[in-house]
Amino acid sequence: MRQIKINQLMNQPWFSFSLPDFSYAFLSVLLEGVPFILLGTVMSGLIDQFLPARVMTRFLPRSPFAGVCVSALMGLVFPMCECGIVPVIRRLIAKGLPVSNAVAYMLAAPIVNPITALSTYAAFRGQGAAEFTTLRLGLGFFIAALVGMAVYNLSIGSVLKKEILESVALGSANSGGGGGAPISRRLVAAMDAGVRDFLDVMLYFIVGAAAASVFGTAINQSLFLPLAMHDWLAVPSMMGLAGILALCSSSDAFVAATFVSFPAVAKLAFLVFGPMMDLKLVFIYAAVFRLRFVFGLAVGLFVLIGLICLRLSVIGL
After folding, report:
1. Cα-based angle 15, 18, 19 (whole degrees, multiple of 5)
2. Which of 43, 47, 101, 286 could cross-link with 91 by S-S, CB 3.0 to 4.6 Å?
3. How far apart are CA 221 and CA 158, in angstroms?
4. 150-198 confidence digits (pLDDT tens)
5. d(Cα 217, Cα 211) in Å, to the nearest integer?
6. What are the C-alpha distances in Å from 141 to residues 31, 47, 96, 109?
7. What is the pLDDT of residue 68?
8. Residue partners of 164: CB distance under 8 A and separation at least 6
């Protein structure tokens, strides 16, 4: 009976665009992501004016490895959604945070934070919630730290866009945000910087949200169902689905938990890959990083997370 139902779903067109469905999905992504982007840009403006340049390096361990690991855990104290974190790291990089540390924080914070932990535990209650939550946060930290160390070995010019490199140079020349200016003037300058970041990131976010909404509503999702029978197909297909759906890390666990026919490792791959890389994030990352780096990061994350999850399936997860 289940096979007949799958066959019926598979007989439906693989692509069918519906304007009402697209509009609903697009507005949902906007309403979900814009508040976090707004929060992130407000924080970025405050960082610009009130955080002295190079102060970040004084609070991080001298060891590059330890610094990357600490940065990957910063989400426990400063939790951020993947939509709002890019403006923040943009300012932190300009203030002297090493790019490797910024990338580690960017990738880990949407996963390794209390909000995501609680939502994952609630979503998988009755499905090994504690184990699944621990695996998600642990794998998120491990991947972010590993990628951060890989970025440490790259030249900064191969990672950041030209205008971001210029802001880093400007930050080096400027010892502190607003200097001795009155608080009121610094707050106005902070809001001005935040608005500029908001408009810049929103341009990429809207394009990414539109692309994600088209793929999420027009592509027949039942095409993924037959892939659930084999781990080596289920894992990459669930990562692909995570990239298409572009869900927020605070709510994606509730969607993943509904895929009861998929193996646990495939759902784990969905929950780790999605907050680190999806269609909208490709465009948002492009506001800070070179396109070649963004595409390399996407491929690297897909392969790395896929291989680790497949390895976990071999040992019996």
Report:
1. 140
2. 47
3. 37
4. 999 999 999 999 888 887 766 555 545 555 678 888 888 888 878 877 8
5. 10
6. 28, 25, 22, 9
7. 96
8. 90, 93, 94, 288, 289
Is residue 301 within 8 Å of residue 144, measured between CB atoms?
no
pLDDT tens track for 75-131: 888 877 787 888 888 888 888 889 999 999 999 999 998 888 988 898 898 888 999
Buried b (16+ CB within 10 A) or exposed e, 218-238: bbeebebbbbbeebeebbbbb
Alpha helices by DSSP H, listed for the chain, are 2-10, 19-50, 55-59, 64-72, 82-94, 99-108, 114-123, 129-152, 162-173, 183-218, 231-245, 252-256, 264-276, 279-285, 291-314
Domain count, the chain: 1
Q: What percent of the chain has pLDDT over 70?
A: 88
Separation of alpha carbons 23 and 283, rounded Å: 20
- The residue behind tokens 């814009």 is 34
| Amino acid sitting at position 275 | P
pLDDT score at 29: 78
* Beta pairing partners, 219: 15
Residue 25: domain span: 2-314
pLDDT of residue 239: 94
C-alpha distances in Å from residue 190, one per residue of 34, 47, 95, 185, 307: 19, 8, 14, 9, 43
- Tell me if 87 sits within 8 A of 44, measured CB to CB: yes
pLDDT-wise least confident of 16-20, 45-49, 94-98, 101-105: 45-49
Question: Which two structure tokens, joined as six digits, stand for 186?
Answer: 């610094």
What are the CA-CA distances from residue 73 to residues 19, 138, 142, 315 (Å)? 41, 10, 10, 27
Given a cut of 70, whether residue 11 has pLDDT beyond it is no
DSSP three-state, residue 5: helix
Give the separation between CA 183 and CA 235, rounded to whole angstroms: 52
